[in-house]
Design a protein that fits this description.
This protein is of the alpha+beta class. α16 packs antiparallel against α17. The longest helix has 18 residues. The protein is globular, with a radius of gyration of 23 Å. The two termini are about 30 Å apart. It is found in: Cell envelope. One of its GO terms (molecular function) is peptide transmembrane transporter activity. Belongs to the bacterial solute-binding protein 5 family. InterPro entries: Peptide/Ni-bd, SBP_5, SBP_5_dom.
């Protein structure tokens, strides 16, 4: 989402966990009294904090974890990831798969949009083709490339009618794939695969930016959206599975300071603080761990710094590797992060690792100095100019940047200027190439290494802000997509990751853990192994 976690989605995007954002307001003194009133009436009201304003509530345009969290609450896919981490039938009550694995037929149950319109197979067909339409500019369009002619349509090499998704009738959706895709049912639980109300979207292009016009088909519906201040969801009485939804309301503050958020939790103004939609203040983590209040979960995500490989000096791979090798990740984890993260020595997280030993040594200053000297010689320069490291505004990202700034200065003698920006501005500048080194994170959209590698397959790919591209890397990813033998496919992907790490268009820094505190009587919040949160089953006991 993040995930620019911020995901992109992926995620994540990422928030504190991945693509973290910003935006904020002052504390709301009325929230404590609201909580007392809720206790008296027995209503189920969940009070949370979004660390940033969601850039969108449109599943076809979402590319970060903040937006994804709201979208997962207000929409439902053909499948939904359950507490067991597996995809289960949701809007689809029955799924038929052909013997060759190339055709999926989804039989939809009776379900409605939050405005009462019926959810149809035509809504799914429209949503998927809309995300693939090159005019839409969806960053996650590539997640639909598994569908027959999906990539061709997105690249103006085929027509919409050539895409392998078709509503056979109101309740039957037929999907033809380019090749067998074992994780396709998991993909249909991803926001880009969610439906949108065809009639609404065609009549109002801005439908997703206001509560009054927002329509979803999920457990909750949007009741209020006071931009950069608060967002309120209420139970969707038109949801097909409404009987399992216990929460009457979810109220989101938008405070961009981790210390303020934790204080609000301690004053009983919030029921949850920290990941996955925000972050805990790093200084408070030791105390929270010692008290036993902090919850931790290892997730499939990587915190990394991206290079703009089109701008010198980072158009040189040796200089990129020098900066990567000079970071002391373990020191960063022990002294700044302090939440049990793991040093990242590869692009693919340990939950699906292709090389468990990693591709380089942590804090290898000697090799870093050697590579820097060689790279500068290749560029014909004797001194590096000041380098700018950009990040989106949060205390956590700032502390990490300050620590790495100091490490680079001591190890390489490089002067680094820090630049922080509000999330929406920051992510747009990344996409426009207005950066030298930029912070980002990535949470897996599904449990497969390809999810972390295919981001960088195409130079102009929706989430490839590095603008790096490599012909052999692309060739290997294409080979992997056609390989049905699991072990052979893993070997091909490992070779691709090896090329990626030798070129180093990003610096892997650490593998994510989600850390948070919550009210003891809050039950049923599901955080998946990919770091996504689902409040469908949440309740206070």
């Amino acid at each position: 989402m993040k995930k620019n976690i911020f995901i992109a989605m992926s995620s994540l995007l990422v928030l504190g966990a991945a693509l973290a954002g910003c935006g904020g307001n002052s504390d709301n003194p009325s929230q404590g009294s609201q909580a007392e009133e809720a206790k008296k009436t027995g209503s189920q009201v969940l009070r949370l904090n979004l660390h940033s304003e969601p850039p969108t509530a449109d599943p076809g345009l979402s590319e970060d974890t903040t937006s994804s969290a709201i979208i997962r609450a207000t929409f439902d896919g053909l499948t939904r990831i359950g507490a067991d981490g597996q995809p289960h039938e949701s809007v689809a009550e029955k799924i038929d798969v052909s013997a060759d694995g190339l055709t999926y037929t989804f039989h939809l149950r009776d379900s409605k949009w939050s405005n009462g319109d019926p959810v149809t197979a035509h809504d799914f067909e429209f949503a998927w083709k809309r995300a693939l339409d090159p005019k839409t500019g969806a960053a996650y369009a590539y997640q639909l490339y598994y569908i027959k002619n999906g990539e061709a349509y997105n690249k103006n090499k085929a027509k919409a009618e050539d895409v392998g998704v078709k509503a056979l009738d109101e309740k039957t959706l037929e999907v033809k794939l380019e090749r067998p895709t074992p994780f396709f049912k998991e993909l249909t639980a991803f926001p880009t695969y969610f439906p949108v109300n065809k009639k609404l979207v065609e009549s109002n292009p801005n439908w997703a930016m206001q509560a009054s016009t927002h329509v979803g088909n999920g457990p909750f519906k949007m009741a209020e959206w006071e931009h950069k201040n608060k967002l309120v969801l209420v139970k969707n009485e038109n949801y097909w599975d409404k009987d399992v939804v216990k929460m009457d309301k979810i109220e989101f503050s938008m405070v961009d300071d981790e210390n303020t958020e934790l204080s609000m939790f301690e004053r009983d103004e919030l029921d949850w603080a920290g990941a996955p939609i925000s972050a805990l203040p790093t200084d408070a983590i030791p105390m929270l761990k010692e008290s036993g209040k902090m919850h931790n979960k290892t997730i499939a995500g990587v915190y990394w710094y991206k290079f703009n490989t089109e701008q010198p000096p980072f158009n040189n791979a040796k200089i990129r590797k020098a900066f990567a090798y000079a970071i002391d990740r373990q020191s960063l984890i022990d002294n700044v992060l302090q939440a049990g993260q793991l040093p990242a020595m590869g692009a693919v997280p340990p939950t699906m690792a292709l090389n468990k030993d990693g591709y380089f040594k942590d804090n290898d200053v000697e090799t870093a100095k050697k590579l820097l000297a060689e790279g500068m010689k290749e560029l014909g320069i004797t001194k590096l100019p000041t380098v700018t490291l950009s990040y989106n505004t949060t205390e956590g990202h700032q502390k990490i940047a300050q620590a790495i700034q100091d490490q680079w200065k001591k190890a390489l003698g490089v002067d680094v200027r820090l630049e922080n920006k509000e999330w929406k501005v920051y992510i747009e500048d990344l996409h426009q190439g207005k950066f030298q080194i930029g912070r980002q994170g990535w949470l897996g959209d599904f449990n497969d290494p390809i999810n972390f590698l295919e981001l960088f397959k195409e130079k102009m790919g929706g989430n490839n802000d590095t603008r790096w591209e490599h012909p052999k890397f692309k060739e290997l990813l294409d080979q992997a997509s056609m390989e049905n033998d699991t072990e052979k496919r893993k070997q091909i992907l490992a070779e691709a990751e090896s090329i990626f790490m030798d070129e180093m268009p990003v610096i892997p820094i650490y593998y994510y853990t989600h850390s948070w505190v919550q009210k003891e009587n809050l039950k049923g919040v599901v955080i998946s192994d990919l770091g996504n949160v689902d409040w469908k089953w949440a309740s206070f006991e």
